[in-house]
Design brief:
Chain lengths: 251, 326
């Protein structure tokens, strides 16, 4: 079996973000982390590989040269076999182009399962897995919280509104990970050493021979949402109830 | 004239409120572009749903009634919706950013070679035409997404739009001969384990009582906040930590990766107020925080903060509301 898994770098959610001068992206001294949902996807890929002998796992990151570090430390050091970096300027690409890049990679690598995160916590789009599945004509299971392989079917439990849904997909398929899928492991010291020697290929978008490399969506402006002001601290339940009843008139 | 196609969301024979919020978005967009609005109802045995949507001023309510559409399998729903959009010449396809909308719409976009904006909260005028405002970085920043393709797909953050009111009149009803091709899609529906609840839906409730990791089961857990929800007719929500620790089902999670709510009144009980939680509730009208620690970030967004043990304060609040109401 062959599994393609994502390793996207995102800005630290606790970083204070500034809007760039052209008003279209972020700038400044931002710390980066591996997208938390990619950590779940990587862990799932490793668990499937451990349970099924002969599985090859490949991590994909799309971004600038710095992204290579996240592929090595976040994926290869944890045990993913090899990596692919597709260099691109993330401010210029949308989820649709990312999906088409993955489509190109799928044609080259012919994986049985593509495991992505359900969303990237910078853009918060929640689109790539679904777009990719449609471009490839493959079945999908988004928001996965449990994955089991039975014969040639992948049984996936999904977190959806109103409860949990279970789907059975025939491979090849696309799965997007939710946070409760697993507890991502830490890289071991041995893993970090091994990762240094693992294969990490670098490609450009043009190498993938896509029909079209234009983004369909462009961010034309960024702004800070209007914040909320802190209210008052009440001294006890009586005062709280009085405020809710007389001032806010909600009870 | 251009057309906006709205995918209706429904459950057990009733139209979900998020559909009406999405219709409100469609009306705002139509007012700017002069487009007309059509509604799509997909499912099995959904004639009644379509009937209920005829009073909202849509040109036509299209019904794709098909056994293969019984469960919202993304490939089958996306093919049907894209085929319908093509056959009626719709240039905008929109749906609530629910788990169904998130699952299905990107596939519709791929089929229609359309650009897509997710979780849209507003429409902004630019020199090139309307752009769609959407939260990014867990809502710490807002981005205005301009879609360059002729056909556009948009998922709508329901809590940002007041539900559309019925406008009278009666839309035409049209049956759409769906060809979902489920057999070709290599997906088998296995089961759905629904959360049984007599309380209102989180995304429809005007009051939400949410609990966090501080509601330790050994001290009473979520049982401590249920009487408050019962008394107020409120929905119950939870932080991710509370769901992870098994205090509440996943369907209750509020935040960046759960549901987004904006009720009239939101109780954050034993919730610290991490950015990812705030992303799902900070647009609530009135926020009450009850927490033992006075320095938690939740107090920065709360209108009324009470520093107290929830297991003492909440029962007291319940008793006093009852006493007040007589
Ligand atoms: C990618 C990503 C996505 C995430 N998405 C979400 C999301 O969608 N939603 C979400 O909620 N979180 C999300 N999180 C997690 C988030 O960062 C926090 O960990 C989580 O919100 C914390 O939940 P909590 O406030 O219940 O727990 P804690 O932070 O542990 O807070 C518990 C609180 O209870 C108080 N307390 C304890 N005992 C009592 C008592 N007896 N009475 C009153 N107060 C008491 C404590 O003072 C504390 O403030 C996400 C994290 C990541 C990395
Ligand atoms: N630049 C990227 N490099 C690698 N994978 C990505 C990238 N952007 C998005 N992805 C994958 O697509 C998922 C969904 O992203 P999005 O639709 O943009 O929220 C992410 O969780 C990743 O798994």
């Amino acid at each position: 079996m062959k599994i393609l898994v994502s390793a996207k770098r995102v800005s630290d959610p606790n970083a204070r973000l500034a809007i760039s001068k052209d008003g279209k992206w972020i700038e400044g001294d931002v710390e980066y982390i591996l997208n938390p949902f990619c950590e779940n996807a990587i862990e799932a890929a490793l668990q499937l590989a451990e349970a099924h002998d002969g599985t090859e796992t490949i991590a994909v990151g799309i971004g600038d040269d710095e992204t290579a570090r996240f592929i090595r430390q976040g994926a290869l050091a944890r045990g993913i076999d090899r990596g692919i970096l597709v260099t691109a300027d993330e401010a210029e690409i949308d989820s649709d182009l990312i999906a088409r890049i993955y489509q190109g990679l799928a044609y080259r690598e012919k994986p049985d399962i593509i495991l992505l995160g359900k969303q990237a916590i910078d853009g918060d789009s929640n689109q790539v897995g679904q777009l990719l599945a449609e471009y490839l004509g493959w079945p999908q299971a988004t928001f996965a919280s449990k994955i089991d392989i039975e014969g040639n079917e992948v049984i996936v439990q999904r977190e959806v509104d109103g409860g949990l849904e279970t789907l059975a997909l025939t491979m090849p398929c696309v799965i997007t990970a939710d946070l409760r899928l697993n507890e991502p492991r830490y890289a071991s010291l041995a893993g970090i050493m091994k990762a240094k020697k693992k294969q990490l290929d670098e490609l450009e978008i043009d190498d993938l021979e896509l029909e079209d490399t234009d983004a369909k969506v462009e961010i034309v402006g960024m702004s800070t949402p209007t914040g909320r002001k802190a209210g008052v601290i009440v001294k006890d339940v009586d005062e709280l109830l009085a405020k809710l009843h007389n001032e806010a008139r909600v009870i | 004239m251009s057309k906006i196609l709205v995918l209706a969301e429904h459950e057990k024979g009733h139209v979900k409120k998020v559909t009406l919020n999405t219709l409100a978005f469609a009306r705002q967009l139509a007012a700017k572009t002069g487009a007309s609005i059509d509604i799509a109802v997909l499912g099995k045995g959904v004639g009644d749903i379509a009937e209920k949507l005829r009073g909202y001023g849509a040109g036509t309510v299209h019904v794709a009634d098909h056994a293969e559409l019984e469960h919202p399998i993304a490939s089958a729903w996306a093919k049907t919706l894209a085929d319908l959009a093509t056959s009626i010449g719709a240039t905008v396809v929109t749906a609530p950013a629910s788990t169904i909308g998130k699952d299905v719409l990107p596939r519709v976009a791929a089929r229609l070679a359309a650009g897509m904006a997710s979780d849209v909260v507003g429409i902004v005028d630019t020199a090139k035409g309307p752009a769609f405002r959407r939260p990014m970085w867990a809502g710490n920043l807002m981005g205005d997404a301009f879609i360059k393709t002729k056909t556009q797909v948009i998922s709508v953050r329901a809590s940002a739009f007041d539900a559309a009111e019925a406008s009278g009149g009666s839309s035409a009803l049209a049956a759409f001969a769906a060809q979902p091709d489920l057999a070709k899609s290599r997906v088998r529906f296995v089961k759905f384990d629904g959360v049984q609840s007599t309380r209102p839906d989180l995304t429809e409730a005007s009051i939400v009582v949410a609990g966090g990791r501080g509601l330790k089961p050994e001290k009473g857990g979520f049982g401590a906040i249920e009487p408050l929800a019962d008394l107020l007719g409120a929905a119950i929500g939870a932080s991710r930590a509370a769901v992870d620790d098994g205090y509440a089902p996943n369907d209750y999670q509020i935040g960046q990766t759960g549901k987004v709510v904006a009720p009239q009144l939101y109780f954050a009980i034993a919730i610290s107020g991490a950015v990812q939680h705030l992303a799902g509730m900070k647009n609530s009208k009135v926020i009450v925080a009850i927490n033992t620690r006075d320095d938690e970030p939740i107090f920065k967004v709360a209108d009324y903060g009470l520093v107290a043990d929830a297991f003492v304060a909440v029962p007291e609040l319940v008793a006093k509301i009852k006493a007040m109401r007589g």
